[in-house]
Amino acid sequence: MVELEKAGVPTVVILSNGFQHDADASAKAFGMGPIPRVEVPLVYNNITTDQAIEQTDPVVEEIMELLTRGISGEEIENQALQDAQAKRFVFNGEDQFGALDAFNQEFLDRDWGDGFPLIPPTDEKVARMLSGTTLDAEEVVCTLPPGNGIVTVQKIAVNCVMAGCEPEHLPVVIAACKAISSMEPFEVRGLLMSTSAGAPLIVVNGPIRNEIGLNYRRATLGPGKMSKVNVTIGRAFTLTLKNGGHWYPGVLDMDTIGTPRKFSFCIAENEEDSPWDPFHVEKGYRPEQNVVSIFPSGGEHDHGNQGVDTADGLLKSLAASCGHSSAHIANLHGELDESPGGATLILLAPAHARPIAGSGYTKSAAKEFLHQHVKAPASEMVAHFNVPEKVRYEWRWLYDLPPWEQERVMLHGQHDASRYFIVCVGADDRAKNLIIGSGTPGMAEIRDRA
Q1: Which helix (H) or strand (E) holds 82?
Q2: Facing residues of 186 across strands?
Q3: What's the gap between Cα 108 and its chain centre?
């Protein structure tokens, strides 16, 4: 719609009930402002052709009227003035605790928080947070998805204060913002704006892991003292996506059910106990560089096979688990073969990585083994995504096969071996892994540390 309007073609959006806020926020994010629209009760994806006609016919006259009338200049000007207004808040109470309660209630009511108590971003606290970087407070860091918000160093610092970060954590969150803004737009919009339960996963590499106390061993994704730095950095990133990138639930985040991964999802790689090069080195960075990677995540599957200690046995066991959580439908629906969207991220415990590497498997060879063994019958994928008209043309022949033939035809879980990412994480004395449906990560170096 935005692209058509830029080309001088008048448009009207036919909006399904429940997506009103999403449409307004999306239009604003992509530079359109108020949008002409009509509303219908049902989502078109979920109804028959007859139902679609039944709910669209009554709004045709309204569509024609909007196409000829448009949006007035006064409406656009009023919206621009409203957007330009900056606010400073003062909170009072019977004592400082009452003022703190009032602050938290106001910010929660405005959906500027995550539901947990926030730290007030006072001038003094924000100034202290800014001491963690050499960048100027007003320097623009990036345009942050999904709402294309312009985020400055100071805006990120405010959210870091609210999350409970220390100044030395600020450069990590800045790099995370740069990393997600570098992702392919279609993929990052799918991650942040889909009705699926997607969330970004932060992975940190380099010496900074130890310098700021990130947990990369036991319970790295857990709560509590051991993972405090992980939790606060992940939380700060989530708050920045909300308040800088307009990633508000029910507005631009249209997730149907939701996921706790959206509260805080931050780890570091256990480079010390890994038998292979760490992820950032694999991607071309030097070992001494500090790097943040942002992986799309679509849920995790716990894998453990403590009774197997041979490399082939472990890899076959991993492949079987990857078959349950791989994005098999990436074979059928999504990007072109030259730019596949689906991927599988394996958070591999050192106790499993070592025997695999010890038998001569490089990381590349291990991924190739997985690719050759992660397969599923066409029947499983057809049943999972039984909408032939939305499937890539080159795969539609699968739907014409008889059931017994669909059971016989086996398809790879991913496009090729490069769509498997392995990151060594976790305690060195336990052999449990996490397998996560993922996509192409965005990456950025952590720089400008004070």
Answers
A1: helix 73-84
A2: none
A3: 22
